[in-house]
Amino acid sequence: MLFLARKNLFQEKTRLLISVGGVAFSVLLMILLQGLNVGFSNILGQYLESVPTDLWVASANTGNIMDPSFLPPTLGQRLKNIDGVASAQPFGMQNITTSVNGKDLAFYMIAYDPSTSVGKPPKVSEGSVAPGKDEIVIDRIVAKSNKIKIGELIPFADKKLKVVGLSEGTFILSTSFAFINKADASEIYTLPTTTNYWLVSVTPGTGVQKVQSRVNGQIPEVNAHTKDHFVQVNVDLVKSIVTPVFGALVVLGALIGLAVIGLTIFTSTIEKAK
User: Fold this and answer.
1) How far is C-alpha 28 from the geometric centre of its chain's CA atoms?
2) DSSP secondary structure letter of residue 178
3) Rounded CA gap, 15 and 18, in Å?
4) What confidence score (pLDDT) does residue 72 get?
5) In the list 22, 104, 135, 226, which could disulfide-bond 131, CB 3.0-4.6 Å?
């Protein structure tokens, strides 16, 4: 039976081409989906890795960026008083949803501080890298898919922000990073008198984990993460969300390839048997 199937398959060149094409498409689809899986999982990690800090200090029960974190502005001085802390900078990042052209768009809004460059976009493909007052930098893919051009206004709460730049590597499936001026964050953010994280740099020659232990020990209402740990936790979070989806699509691609081969061989063999 196997010999007959193989013989018939090579005799029917059209069916052979269909089979080869089906398998090639399935393999290409699986490779593409696996690449997208890895890419989306790493985008968040790459951005967090680009933030200049040794420690991410969040609220006590905050483990990743999807968990709420609200910290008082007075925390900065308490952090600076800890032995081994060289600097402590506030970092605002909140999930904000707005409607653009009749479609809801979700953004991780990051507050850019012009005085320290904290919160700056990692890479801009077009326009400005530094949003001024009443300005915003959004992801290039989001702009293209929603037909948003530089110079257009996007509504947030009672404000409208002008798009002045398009960033690269800031799109993650259904959401993306956007960058606004620190002055606008106080008008857009939930609980504007707080910040979401503190970025702590340690003094040269001091162990990062030692300072982490001091921060967690002396300020029990916070959770200090080393940069590597915080990046990995968030990468794993994205993987836990996207891997099952892409995994199911990869399996579907494999089944399509097998179905094409099986159907082609079955049809050819049945016809020859008659």
Assistant:
1) 24
2) E
3) 5
4) 92
5) 135
Count of residues making up the chain? 274
Q: With contact defined as beta carbons under 8 Å apart, do 108 and 93 qualify? A: yes
Q: Is the pLDDT of residue 1 over 50?
A: no
Domain boundaries, the chain: 2-46+235-273, 52-233
Chain-centre distance for alpha carbon 4: 51
Largest CA distance in the chain: 89
Mean pLDDT in residue range 145-167: 93
CB atoms within 10 A of CB 39: 14
Kindly report whether the global pTM for this prediction surpasses the value 0.85.
no
For residue range 204-235, list pLDDT tens digits in order: 999 999 999 999 999 999 999 999 999 999 88
**What is the DSSP secondary-structure string of 128-152?**
-SS--TTEEEEEHHHHHHTT--TT-
Alpha carbon distance 98, 156 (integer Å): 6
Rounded Cα–Cα distance for residues 162 and 16 (Å): 56
